[in-house]
Design goal:
237 residues, alpha/beta, Rossmann fold, 2 domains, 8 helices, 7 strands, globular
């Protein structure tokens, strides 16, 4: 069933309804779900989970989330992240890629392969490739945007590679505070330690994230782990 608006807008509608009518949020969510033809919000949300992984992840994100997208090389974390931005742009959101890995042309080429045929939707994703990308740089370029705007940072472990930048733990704390204050969503592509592949697990988890230095991974609110064509979305905090 096609929704009348993207799910993030429906969530926002429910939050406004809850505030203006002094309703519990779960009641307001169920009310919006009934307007969309579902008996309750959980059924509406479940219907979105049947779609492609990127749409499933997008539908589960709330304003202010910090999302971790993690996997071993070649298992689809970058493709999922870029598709997430294309889906967000298609929903009318501001979408940004901050990459310390790709050139702008490389990133644009990847995005073009994910866009809708005969559509310039991938062109709506703004790309930044400066070596100066850091928490301060990201905040500078995203300040003043409406809640629900989304950015992907490629990738987590490179943010403090230059010694002139604050350590990764400080940058992540700063970006988490910024996301909560503004309602902007930030996704971080992350490496998984190679030891994961020797442990025989089907999918990596938060304990397998590669961290050269200490980072409080509890700062992330959501995570998506990928391996061998599977993707598992979960709440972290």
């Amino acid at each position: 069933m096609k929704l009348s608006a993207p799910i993030f807008q429906l969530k926002r509608r429910a939050k406004l309804m809850a505030r203006s009518n002094s309703l519990p949020l779960n009641e307001a969510l169920d009310h919006v779900a009934r307007e969309e033809g579902f008996a309750r919000w959980s059924l509406l949300s479940a219907s979105m989970s049947a779609g492609p992984p990127s749409e499933t992840v997008l539908s589960q994100l709330d304003d202010g989330d910090l999302l971790l997208i993690a996997g071993r090389p070649g298992h689809g974390k970058t493709k999922l992240s870029l598709q997430l931005l294309v889906d967000a742009a298609r929903d009318g959101r501001k979408a940004f890629l901050f990459t310390l890995e790709f050139t702008e042309q490389q990133a644009r080429n990847h995005l073009q392969t994910l866009g809708v045929p005969s559509s310039n939707i991938a062109e709506a994703v703004q790309i930044f490739t400066s070596d100066q990308i850091s928490a301060e740089y990201i905040i500078q370029h995203m300040s003043g945007l409406e809640a629900g705007a989304i950015a992907v940072i490629d990738f987590l472990q490179l943010l403090d590679q230059q010694r002139s930048k604050p350590v990764l733990s400080e940058q992540l704390q700063t970006l988490g505070d910024f996301a909560k204050h503004t309602g902007i969503i930030l996704g971080f592509i992350s490496q998984i330690d190679r030891s994961f592949e020797a442990e025989g697990k089907r999918l990596p988890d938060i304990r397998d994230v590669r961290l050269p230095n200490f980072v409080d991974l509890g700062l992330f609110s959501k995570a998506c782990f990928l391996h061998n064509g599977e993707a598992q979305f979960q709440n972290v905090a």
